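Contributing new records

If you add data, match the layout below exactly. Sequence lines come first and carry their own label; structure lines follow with theirs. Keep one chain per record. Anything else will be rejected by the validation script.
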Amino acid sequence: MGTRLLQRFLPIVNNTFRSRPNLYLHGERILQVPTNFIAVRNYAKGKDKGKEKKGKGTKVEINPAMMSEVVAVDKIQERCKAVIEKLKDDFAKNLSLRSTTGSIESLLVKFEGKEYELQELAQIVRKNPKTIVIHFSSFPQVIPDALKAISKSGLNLNPQQDGTTLFVPVPKVTKEHREALAKNAKALYVKCRDSLKDVQNDFIKKVKKQTGISEDLAFNVTKQITAMCDDYQNEAKSIYETKHVELVGK
């Protein structure tokens, strides 16, 4: 009996669900279930989009002919090269693992508002492999400034004063000395990097002040100035990394 009733009832339920899929059987009651759905597409957030795009930019092609319509390309290159040469010169003079007479001779001393090489103010001789002697008999008044310059040179020197003469022991190359030199190398590199950034900003300002040029040209030249200065910054970084390896021995 129960089976017959079920067989008669099932077609009714099936037909009901086909015509009205939002109904379902629950005991003896038919309840209506909402079937309104909203399709939602998940989009990447702004910061995620940035992550996806990061690293996919194309290299900016430098076109000196185009740049020269707006700025003096040779001036950009001249200033950047001067900054790079100064970095090389500073590394050579101030970051020697062994203090040499030459590195001390070229040490810059600020005296009465001007900078002089130490050899212009004193007589420098190497007494023996372990000692350098600096005589200030002609300019004894410069001794305090010379001592300050020596202490800040990064050469790990500890001069001893005797009247108008400084006796400078040549230090051994220790791990601490290497680390101190490496720290000074980084400071000089950061200074160089900032100077290159200044060159970049100076010429970008010149572009922005230009009148009578299209926005597209100004935009493209600005990008190329940045790319050109980035190349010099990469060169400076390479010089620093080579020096760092030389100093720390790794």
